Known about the structure:
Elements (H helix, E strand, L loop, with lengths): L4 H18 L5 H17 L14 E4 L5 H11 L6 H5 L29 H20 L7 E5 L1 H5 L1 H12 L5 E7 L2 E2 L2 E2 L8 H7 L3 E6 L3 H12 L5 E6 L22 H11 L10 H9 L5 H13 L6 H16 L6 E2 H9 L8 E5 L3 H4 L18 E3 L4 H13 L4 E7 L7 H10 L4 E5 L17 H6 L5 E3 L4 H13 L5 E4 L4 E2 L16 E5 L6 E5 L3 H14 L4 E5 L3 H5 L3 H8 L5 E5 L16 E2 L10 H7 L4 H12 L1
Parallel strand pairs: 1-2, 2-3, 3-7, 6-7, 9-10, 9-11, 11-12, 12-14, 13-14, 17-18, 17-19, 19-20
Antiparallel strand pairs: 4-5, 8-15, 16-18
Helix pairs in contact: 1-2, 1-3, 1-10, 2-3, 2-9, 5-7, 5-16, 7-16, 13-19, 14-19, 16-17, 20-24
The site of thiamine diphosphate (TPP) has 20 residues, from helix 2, helix 6 and strand 4.
Amino acid sequence: MKNYTNLANCIRFLSIEAVEKAKSGHPGMPMGMADIATVLFHDFLTHNPKDPEWILKDRFVLSNGHGSMLLYSLLYLTGYKKMTLQQIKNFRQLGSITAGHPEYEPDAGIEITTGPLGQGISNGVGMALALKKLAAEQKLKRTPKVYVFCGDGCLMEGISQEAISLAGHLKLDNLILVYDNNKISIDGSTDLSFSDNTNLRFKSVNWNVFSGDGHNHKNIRDLFKKSQKSNKPNLLNFKTTIGFGSPNKSAKASSHGSPLGADEIILTKKKLDWKEAPFHIPAALLKEWRQSSNRNLKIYAQSKQSIKNIKGLKNFSTEVIKLFDAVSSEFKDFNSPQATRKSSEAVLHFINSNIPIFGGSADLTGSNNTKGKQMEIVNHKNFKAQYIHYGVREHGMAAIMNGIASTKLYKTYSGTFLSFADYMKPSLRLAALMNIDPIQVFTHDSIGLGEDGPTHQPIEQLNMLRLIPNSFVFRPCDMMETIACWKAALLIDNAPSFICLSRQNLPQISNKRINISNFKGAYTIYESSKINHITIIATGSEVSLAVEVANLLKEVKIEAKVVSMPCTSLFDSQKNSFKNKLLQSKLSQIFVIEAGSTMYWNKYTNQENIFGIDEFGASAPAKDVFNKYGLTPKRISSTIRKRIK
Ligand SMILES: Cc1ncc(C[n+]2csc(CCOP(=O)(O)OP(=O)(O)O)c2C)c(N)n1
Ligand SMILES: [Mg+2]
């Protein structure tokens, strides 16, 4: 059998030296997983470093992202052009692609951003799902595989259970999870906090489970081989030694997250019989690494034909524009009161199987109204389908969607209640950070949901979402605005969108005013006169309330214009001249009405001009809850009247 030891040592010493030079980082994991990674990249992973974005390659996810130097070493050694030796030397420095934790850089071979533990496992599930769909649609002979590395920490995180449970249910047989079972985490031995029987845990959710020695190359090969042909997802549980090769720090938490130190590096080199200067890889070893992927060249060449037929998201925006021309003309005269979640469903009914979309809901399909009538349900016999029943797994769902979105093969959206956005937040943030474009449909978007009470009534969630950089929160007020928001969200391809929708019926008020083909996030929806004393900004269900307020104010000779602002970030990105003109009024007074926390709105006006809710809601019929918080036309108009005398 081949001797992989020195190939693995290339990874070890690149990692050790990069961490040493940066004076920070995590050497232990790359040292411990180097043997497994070598066998995988050398003999199994189907990839082509010359074409990092080859659609039909296998995906590699480093869920234990603190071991980022393992990934950067592999990319450099196998010959990814962007991953130069200079990048390795610039580990953790400003402007490098070798960040402390891997940051999504598909053309460099970094397929997903990881670091918050557990996310990568779920991202891998999403990738595996997207690739199963692609394989089913294209009748591919070979379904690309997804290899995910994870550590003890990823398996302790709750999100991992949501993801592995769904993966087992869907029988994602192209998924291979490689567990770095080193029994060490930051606080010390995992005996302190972790006594799961991991193999039984995975077996119980319908996975194949294999155990082995993560430093025995033959054993590693055998397990990878066994996982190649399977009808279930696979766990390869490898016993490993963190910091392998370091005489004083191996098997200890001290190797996890700090440089080994100059003296220990000398001892480690001695122990592993490595005589090279820092960052120097002997030519013969580098050559062998660089040639290791040549075994894939044939399959790469053969895949050209299949790739021609894969349209992915290439024509997506053209399709969306066409679709929305049809949707808009269908509903332009629509005039019945309707909840915006129902309006959203009406949009989704137009989506047919030609549109590359993956929808779903976390067990609230009938409440979120997320399933278009033409959509089939994904199961292990029907991966061509468009709709995923995620089960009650919000966090897993959001991270799985990031995995789907990262492939750029499908647009993906899902549904749950807005109050449960908190369950998904870590993954939403990562989507924004990665510049990927999942869409979350969040229904029951205010106290307007009524009797389910304060546990279900979102208060600070709208603003929590708005505070995520590079994200778009949409909160439409009626059918036509819902159409505009869906269209905008589908066309955004570099940021996540959150479409927040009402449970309760709302009147149709935007038809005459909204410009769907040139939607700027806000517009004047109502003016009581040509010259207005004040401006009232409102969103979603409070827009019609604002119009009622304006009508009451008119009775006392205060003229008001109502600006509907379904997307603040889209509005904020417009030219100042547009923004100033839209908000301008004779008295330069701006008021805001939104049934949620007030704090975000201070950027448009003074605190006392904001009508919102800064405490938890109440269990009661919606009307009574709006009343309790003074969000009624009468109360608001009389307060405004007092304010401006
Ligand atoms: C969600 C989350 N919580 C905490 C951390 C901080 N953290 C980074 S690594 C780590 C320990 C992980 O242990 P393990 O996965 O076993 O890694 P090993 O030490 O074996 O490399 C922790 C707590 C994190 N990155 N993400
Ligand atoms: Mg560990």
